[in-house]
Specification:
Layout: H1 4-23, H2 26-47, H3 49-69, H4 75-96, H5 105-121, H6 129-142, H7 145-155, E1 168-169, E2 174-175
Antiparallel strand pairs: 1-2
Helix pairs in contact: 2-3, 2-4, 3-4, 4-7, 5-6
């Protein structure tokens, strides 16, 4: 890809695919485009938690605009990204077995809250399980974002957006000054 021949070969291989997609109707072409671009991004979100957090922020910003143009439930894409991030962390924990990112008092409160919300599903006196699906599910699932963010920030010294996070401890709420920050010390 770093020479004209590589660019020509890439364009030569992609030209028939682009021509074929252009001949399809708009809806089929759009769905095919979303699948070709979205599927690799979803797989990458599974293995890179910091990228997953950035993708969740991007999708959360685009959901209000997407709902103006379609009646599809685009908010469930955010739920899917949260689920993929949680599964990605669990898959990594099979190998790493380091739960230090989740050992904070807030973590225990969130786990109790999640347990309470899950127990509401099996409540035999519940009026409607569909009401739980529409209201409580979104609030309960978004609490998992705390663990995804904690894992991404604790294990990635560059942070989510690439900024250095060595000088600010996110969970103990104190500033760690480098030795060069104050001259003469």
């Amino acid at each position: 890809m770093n020479n004209p021949l590589g660019v020509a070969l890439l364009a030569g291989h992609r030209w028939p695919l682009a021509t074929w997609v252009a001949t399809l109707d708009f809806r089929t072409g759009f769905v095919l485009y979303v699948v070709l671009i979205g599927a690799p991004l979803i797989v990458y979100c599974l293995f890179n938690v910091a990228f997953n957090v950035g993708m969740m922020l991007f999708v959360a910003l685009l959901v209000p605009f997407a709902t103006k143009f379609t009646s599809a439930p685009v908010g469930t894409l955010l739920d899917l990204l949260i689920l993929i991030g949680a599964v990605g962390i669990l898959l990594r924990q099979i190998k790493e077995r380091d739960w230090s990112f989740a050992k904070y008092p807030l973590s225990y409160m969130i786990i109790i809250w999640l347990y309470y919300n899950i127990m509401q599903i099996v409540n035999p006196y519940a009026e409607s399980r569909m009401a739980w699906l529409y209201t409580v599910r979104s609030v309960a699932i978004q609490q998992v974002v705390f663990f995804i963010g904690a894992y991404a920030f604790c294990n990635n010294k560059k942070g989510v957006c690439g900024a250095e996070t060595d000088h600010f401890d996110l969970f103990r709420q104190r500033i760690i000054w480098p030795e060069t920050a104050i001259p003469g010390l």
